[in-house]
Amino acid sequence: MFSSRNVPLVTYVRRTLVARLAIMATVIAVAMAVFAYVAEERMLKEEIVTEARADIGELVARTREIVAQTDVTPAAAFDRALGEFGATRRLTTRGKIVYAKFSGRDKAEEREYLDTTFAEHQAVWEHVHADGASASYTELPWVETKRIAKLLAVHAVLLLGDPARDEAGTAEIVFIPAPAVVASMKRKSVFTAGIVVLITLATTGLLYPVVLRLTNRLVAFSRNMQAANFETLSLLGCIVAKRDSDTDEHNYRVTMYALRMGEALDLRTPQMRALTMGAFLHDVGKIAIRDDILLKPGRLTPDEFEIMKTHVRHGLDVIARSTWLREARDVVGGHHEKFDGAGYPDGLEGKEIPLTARIFAVADVFDALTSRRPYKAPLSCGEALDILEQGRGTHFDPEVVDLFAGMAKTLHEHYAHKTGSDLKAELIDMSWRYFQHDAQTLI
Known about the structure:
Blueprint: H1 9-69, H2 74-85, E1 95-104, E2 111-114, H3 121-128, E3 142-148, E4 151-160, E5 169-177, H4 179-244, H5 249-264, H6 269-281, H7 291-294, H8 302-309, H9 311-320, H10 329-334, H11 355-370, H12 381-390, H13 398-405, H14 408-415, H15 420-435, H16 437-440
Antiparallel strand pairs: 1-2, 1-5, 3-4, 4-5
Helix pairs in contact: 1-2, 1-4, 5-6, 5-11, 5-15, 6-11, 6-15, 11-12
């Protein structure tokens, strides 16, 4: 039951740091890899276009050369150049022209060529004859990279002949790069993406020690802040405890009892933090009560009791002066309220009383009953539980009493005889996680 569920802050920080760095590195690496791959793909297409331009340029140059050197028409020159170029020329190095078409001023001069030895020649034919396949170009030369039957292809339209001599025509060409060229370029893309991933992860790995060193400093600072916060709580609680009973062990024990009940009820972190602070500071308002009333050994008169009850208001005034201590308000203001509405200062009833105050009321009365005081001997755990049972539904929340009854014996045996230093050390260890929340959000 008493095995700590705490995760030490250093461990938490390192786990969180590693996890977040890993996630960030993975996200960045993937993003950069995708970017690099896309960039390489774009460069691949540009290289293929360059290769295609080179082959197409040779065909066009030869056609123009034939036109310039002879009196043949551009259509005839194109036929001759294409024949010289060859259907399988340099397929193994760069690629091949699988479709070519010459269009002149006269429809009769139109020439069209399709390499039927190419496996996907039908797909190429359907592509170039599809509606609007090459209608989108507005000026020449026009070059576009396309996917035809899942193959990368260059579709181009270029000007042939000499417009000044009224010999202008256009050549529409589909160039398919060699598979080896495409495969090589894709390997380069994958390799580049892999290098980017490797560099990103390596950089993250190199940054980890630096970030860890800075984080360790944050941990040390957080521990110092935590110690200072607990010292503030302990100091304020001790001021009252020393006036009332010469010991602050009651504050530690009652806080431990309350926190164990809070854990059993699965209270959220802010509630557990508020319960811890409220338990420490529940009687802080007693610093404003006169000694003749606070330390009176006998029963208080009605007037004296009315003065004693003002310690709740005084306590609320004290914690209201600190933004950090205001979380203790529910316990400080509600620990003397009773479930049947007969308590003070506001006469709250039932669930109107904050849950943390209802929890603390049970813990407070139980520890007061089982603790030694100058004017009384301690009661046994069983006797104290009997008294709590008598107040079930009147003074105390029945559900909280029932919960505490199941753990009271074990808690009492564990804490009743511990010294103040031991109680303080265990309390700080147990409640650490509730006060490190803000530090965690900085990581």
